[in-house]
Structures are given as structure tokens and as C-alpha cells.
Amino acid sequence: MKPSAASFSLSPSFWRGLRAFLPLVPGILPFSLVTGVAAVQAGFSPVQSIFFSVIGFAGSAQLIASQMFKSGTPTILILLSALVVNLRFAIYSAAMLPVLSRASKLWRWPLAYVLTDQNFAVMAARPADELNPVQYYAGASAVMWLTWQLGTVAGALLGAGIPAAWPLDFAVPLSFIALLVPVLKTRPQLLAALVSGAVAVAAHGLPYRLNLMVGAACGIAVGLYVQNLRAKSVNKDVQA
After folding, report:
1. d(Cα 119, Cα 142) in Å, to the nearest integer?
2. TM spans, by residue (predicted)?
């Protein structure tokens, strides 16, 4: 069913998506808290930090932009780095197209604005018989958006009182690891994750965080290669 602007009432699918996202909240809160703290320690006021989070709503890009702003990096380089870090959302958007094309044009804008790693993962793992994936995604996104904003507000308000030397950054990779591990269910997926991580670390010296894109590309290539090998092996056994 294609929801219109007037008929976007909350259905059971919305609440299913909301409940599916709840287990990720403990991992998102420290990440958003760190982002709020980083913005204040970079020189933004708490109000500016909160507006930055509401307008940007970009997770790792917010964190990187704050760090680069603090080090005096030119604005154009900050924008380019944020663009590179967020290139993965081009892949997410392409994958989400079959879902979002069911929504009215008015709703596609806010639904695209709330797209993140976390609610994309929840959507990818949704039940195959989910009747209304648009509302399922909206429910998951509502929890994500609210959790993120509450965390960054808390971080922005507490930021001035937290010593910069405290190693709070550890929460960022931990939140992504907690998101990734439950979806690694097959050998190609596991190999793709291991290769992408290893390559990204090995290519850490590349500028503008390009190591992330290189690692992702290598992981995808290895995962597809192993998956194709397994498919050919299965077909060969069937024909035999």
C-alpha cells in the first residue's frame, strides 16, 4: 500500500519497527553522547551543538567534522571529508529505493533524512512477510532519531564538564561492532567483514578517510566472490 500524506497513521508495522530497534538503543546512547561532547570541546556552544545534530543527523560525519573544526581545518576540506564518509549512504539509498518508492513524495524527504546505519540494518533484517515496510522503517527511525538527539543534547550540556583526556571515543567503534556482529550469519558475510576491517586498518594512512571506502569495496568483492563460488559448487552438485 502506498501511504499518502493524509493517511500516514501509525499502523502495527510502525510499532514492530520501533520494537525491533530498541535493542540497539544502549549502543547508540554513548555514541551520541560522545558526539555532543566532541562538538562542545571543538568550540561550539551547547545550542550550536544541538542544532548541528538536528540539522546534520550524521553520526560519524558529525564527529569527524567536530574534530577537524577543532584542529582548524578549512571548511571545504571538512565538507569533502563528511561527503566521503557518507558515501556509503549512496549504497543504502539504492537498496532502500524499493521500499521508499512506496511512500508518497512528501514523505520520502523526511524518511531519507532519518536514514542511518542502524535503521538500515534493522530494515535489512526485517521479517520477509512484513506487510508495511515503510511504516516499519518509520518506527525504527523514530527511535533512532529520538535516541540520537537526546544523547547529543546530554553530551552538549555535559561537554564542558568532561575532561578532554577521557577516552570516550571507544564508544563509537563498539556501537558499530554491536550492530554488525548479529547480522554475520554466513561464511561470505563473515569473510567480507574480516577483509573490509583488515584492509581499512591497513590503509589507515590514506587521506580523507578513503580507507573506509577501500575497505568496504574489498570486503564486498571478497564476499561476492565467495558467494559465487558456493553457488557454483551447489549447482555442480545438483547437476551431478
Report:
1. 9
2. 21-44, 50-69, 76-100, 136-158, 164-183, 190-206, 212-229
Ordered by start, the domain boundaries in the chain are 12-171, 184-239
pLDDT of residue 75: 84
- The residue ranges of the chain whose pLDDT is under 70 are 1-9, 160, 162-175, 178-179, 182, 208-209, 237-240
- DSSP character for 152? H
How far apart CA 80 and CA 102 sit, in angstroms, is: 32
User: DSSP string of 91-106?
Assistant: HHHHHHHHHHTTS-HH
- Say what the pTM is: 0.69
Is the CB of residue 199 less than 8 Å from the CB of residue 219? yes
Contact 41, 70 (CB under 8 A): yes
Closest residue by Cα to residue 154 from 143, 144, 146: 146
Helices of type H across 114-186: 117-124, 133-158, 171-180
